[in-house]
Amino acid sequence: MAFAAFGSSTPTTKGQTKSGRVVLALLLPGLIYLVLFFVIPLVSLVLTSLEAPAASGRIGEYVPGFDFGNYAYVVTKYWPQIARSFGFAFIATIIALLISYPLAYFIGVKARPWPMLQRMLVTLVIAPFFISFLLRTIAWKQLLADHSPIIEWAHQVGFLSPSQSFIGSNAAVVFGLVYNFIPFMTLPLYTSLERLDTRYLEAGSDLYASPSKVFRKITLPLSMPGIISGTLLTFIPIAGDYVNASRDFLGSSNTSMIGTMVDADFLQNRNYPAASAMSVVLMGIILILVTWYVRKSGTEDLL
Amino acid sequence: MKALSHLWSGIKRGSLPVYSLIAVVFLLTPIFYTIIFSFNKSLRRNTVWNSFTLDNWTNICARQDLCSAVGNSLMISLISTLIATALGTALAIALVRYRFKLRSTVNFALFLPMATPEIVMGAGLASLFFNAGVGPGFVPTVIAHVMFCLSFVVVTVKARVQTLDPALEEAGRDLYANPSQVFWKITFPLLLPGVLSAALLSFALSFDDFIITYFNSGSVNTFPKFIYVAAKGGVPAQANVIASSVFLLAILIVLATQISSHFKRKRLQHIK
């Protein structure tokens, strides 16, 4: 029992104190790191969001305070960006779910007899992770630029009125967001569909349930954990993204999001309190929405 | 509902493979585009196809600033991957193998960074460094990268630890191996595939990170920062070369591990 340090903890006191020490040694470095560079930065963000301009009045100088005016300022000034960020996130998440579900179903359920194909397809779904996110977005900007074949065709068919550009529109930004976050949706969906016991589906159709009923009553509920984690993994980063919406990428000055304003206030205007207040607002809304969503879908153990 | 059910059964019958193929092609289109345009003979802006050339591949460092940015990125990703993998593997082992108070709290705390938008984490760290009087730069960037990679390492390695059979370690102990021998001769080799994929993921996340880096790196240029700034005027084709080679390397690694594990499984089946 003297060697009980690793593996299951033993009931003897000696074993327990020893494994207790091992647990601590394993946990402490990571946890200290988490507190120092995740918890404290969030606290620092909240404190900064309450700072007031320094008496000197110089740009970029602030003193600690309890100035809730920063919140009133960002909410009144930036409400279009706040609405746009969550609107984009909402629409893009739903589109990504609709696109990803059949794909994940095919890979996870239909491709089961061919494990090699299954693994190949998963690799292809995650392939975009291995090439620069910014360059992929620029590629779409070029592929969908005015006079590109795709856009010329859209003009001819009438999807776009003549003289109308696609790049710079809200639709272009949503398109980019959907594209960039599809793998984050497909992977969790695949993971939960891959575990789906197809005998349930057979049982359902044996009992004369229509295919759509089988889907609604069996497949969909059983893949709920995948849907929840997939939607969270797409919604949250989309709400905070601002690269797709940038005018150098797929957006224009009319598509700015919360991140655009945080970037401008923090890095250019050096209005740190406003940038921090804006980040806290973003984080706050996300926490409220996620808590509500997870409660409502009844999968709290997921976290 | 009726129309939906027709649609669904239609999809199930034959169009699902076709649909999946289209979806995968859609996902890969920008990758093909990026690779093809790495062979474009372009002047300053690499937006219109001119003619095929290998010059960009043979003169990667024609843009000195690009090469130094890539160098910085490699350095940052390498260091942060090493640290994040070490910290995360330890956390994952503790979380799966031991029952302790606050275990679910620790699990939740490690989930939180993944539920935090990059912009919030980036601005938070930047405000911390600013308030502490530390300017942005190389070290703050590495610190930030370790932070956002950590949770992903924990999740990946945890999945692997869960598949480990504790009986193997017990057997080692029964044969009088000491704890460190048990760890290095049994636990670690079995964990290695999980640790390696966590490290690969961590490296990919770190190498591609833009937002958090933008807030914390100051004057240190990285590959994504270079592209972001160049996007205004035109990205040189050499950037496509870098991205394409990273992509091809990563895909090769993934394919090699998949094929080797496929054959290993086949061999095991034969033994059984």
Q: H/E order of the elements of chain A? A: HEEHHHHHHHHHH
Neighbour order of strands in the largest sheet of chain A? 1-2
Q: What is the average of the pLDDT values of chain A?
A: 88
Q: Calculate the terminal CA-CA distance of chain A, rounded to whole Å.
A: 35 Å
Helix-strand makeup class of chain B: mainly alpha
- Rg of chain B is 23 Å
Helix content of chain A: 55-70%
Using the coordinates shown, work out and report the CATH topology of chain A: MetI-like fold
Contiguous uncertain segments of 5+ residues of chain B: none
Query: Main beta sheet of chain B: strand number and arrangement?
Result: none
Mean pLDDT of chain B: 89
Count of helical stretches of chain B: 11
Instruction: Name the quaternary structure.
Output: heterodimer
Number of helices of chain A: 11
Most extensive interface: A-B, 96 and 99 residues
Report the order of strands and helices of chain B. Answer: HHHHHHHHHHH
| CATH C-level category of the domain at 64-235 in chain B | Mainly Alpha
C-alpha-based Rg of chain A, rounded: 25 Å
Tell me which CATH architecture of chain A applies here: Orthogonal Bundle
Transmembrane segments (chain B): 21-39, 74-96, 108-130, 142-161, 182-207, 241-263
InterPro entries (chain B): Bact_Polyamine_Transport, MetI-like, MetI-like_sf
Family (chain B): Belongs to the binding-protein-dependent transport system permease family. CysTW subfamily.
Membrane topology (chain B): Multi-pass membrane protein
Task: Describe this entry's structure for a reader.
The complex is a heterodimer of chains A (about 300) and B (about 270). By secondary structure, chain A is mainly alpha-helical. Chain A has one domain: MetI-like (MetI-like fold), CATH 1.10.3720.10. Helix content of chain A is about 70%, strand content about 0%. Chain A has eleven helices and two strands. Chain A has helices at about 15-50, 70-110, 115-125, 135-145, 150-155, 170-195, 200-205, 210-220, 225-240, 260-270, 270-295; strands at about 50-55, 60-65. A two-stranded antiparallel sheet of chain A has the order 1-2. In chain A, helix 1 (about 15-50) packs across helix 11 (about 270-295), helix 6 packs antiparallel against helix 9 and helix 9 runs antiparallel to helix 11 (about 270-295). Chain A is globular, with a radius of gyration of 25 Å. Chain A starts with 12 loop residues before the first helix and ends in a 6-residue tail after the last helix. By secondary structure, chain B is mainly α. The longest helix of chain B has about 35 residues, at about 1-35. The radius of gyration of chain B is 23 Å and the shape is globular. Chain B has helices spanning about 1-35, 55-60, 65-95, 105-110, 120-130, 140-165, 165-175, 180-210, 210-215, 225-235, 235-270. The mean pLDDT of chain B is about 90. Chain B contains eleven helices and no strands. Classes of the chains: A mainly alpha (about 300), B mainly alpha (about 270). The interface between A and B is large, with 96 and 99 residues.
